Amino acid sequence: MKLSIVSSLRGGFYFPDMLSGDTFRERLASLKRLNFDCVEIWGKWLKEDIDSVVAALKAEKVPAGNICSGFRGNLLAADSEERMTCFQDFHDLLELAARVESAGLVFVPLFARRPQMPDMSPWMDPYEVEMGIFVDMMGKLTQRAEALGVKLLLEPVNRYETHLFNTLEDAARVIDTVGSDALRITADFFHMNLEEADIGASIRQYGHLIGHVHIVDSNRYLPGQGHTDFAPGITALKEVGYEGSLSLECFARGNPEEVLPKSVTFMKNLLEK
User: Fold this and answer.
1) CA-to-CA distance for 204 and 200, rounded, in angstroms?
2) Domain region containing 136
3) pLDDT tens-digit profile of 48-104?
4) Positions in the chain short of pLDDT 70
5) Is residue 266 packed enough to be buried (19+ CB in 10 Å), middle (13-18) or exposed (0-12)?
6) How many domains would you assign to the chain?
7) I need a labelling partner for 181 at 20 to 30 A (CA). Which of 44, 102, 135, 259 fits?
């Protein structure tokens, strides 16, 4: 497994960039000094900055693990124009994921605690409408992903952030419905800590569908700054043969220049056991 961290291109995303440096290339150099293996690129601005990003990755010899988000709106907005804008952004980001030679695009379909679609009972309730639209869009987008050789990496998140996909089982169910190897799971330890009864058992059951992992502690801080026992989950990932990246997508408690190296050491020690 490869250790990764999310980095932005121009700043301004939900999790603050913990890597030092004013430019993306400088942050890549910082990433190398800290002994990370690859980078997860926040997708905002990637289309505009793609040439400089490709050049920086090549110059610093840092592989791109994945692209994370960066699209406008959401795939399941009630407004059709917003849905189609998001769909086009997904289309573009898949091409950019291939351009930087990454595994694919990490995404959450919808941040909302209730369906955004109208109730069309008795034909369909709002949840059924959402799922129908989502499966249709995934069918189209996975065709593009397959052609490009990249993945759509669906991230289940906890019940307080979305009603739609909360567990690995939820994601596995829709992957089975879509029926494409280009749709895989992003397993996030923060969300699994809230939703899975047994993280290790869930990983063993659905590990064949996991295409990416976010490594985050119980309080959404760096690994080692909360109370999550990562060992059972890491052991399960090893057992299922997961060889992708473990990416830090979180906050830091303390000065990143002081606490980030400690977290890297914490994770490297876990991986070497």
Assistant:
1) 6
2) 2-272
3) 999 999 999 999 999 999 999 999 988 898 899 999 999 999 999 999 999 999 999
4) 12
5) middle
6) 1
7) 44
Task: Give the count of alpha carbons within 13 A of 240, CB side only.
Answer: 19
3-state secondary structure of 148: helix
Query: Six-digit token pair at 226?
Result: 């909360």
Biggest CA pair distance of the chain: 59
d(CA 50, CA 165): 31
Cβ-contact 38, 2 below 8 angstroms: yes
Q: What is the pLDDT of residues 131-152, one digit of tens each?
A: 999 999 999 999 999 999 999 9
4 membership: H or E segment, kind and range: strand 2-7
Q: Where residue 130 sits, what CATH number does that domain have?
A: 3.20.20.150
Residue that the structure tokens 């840092």 belong to? 62
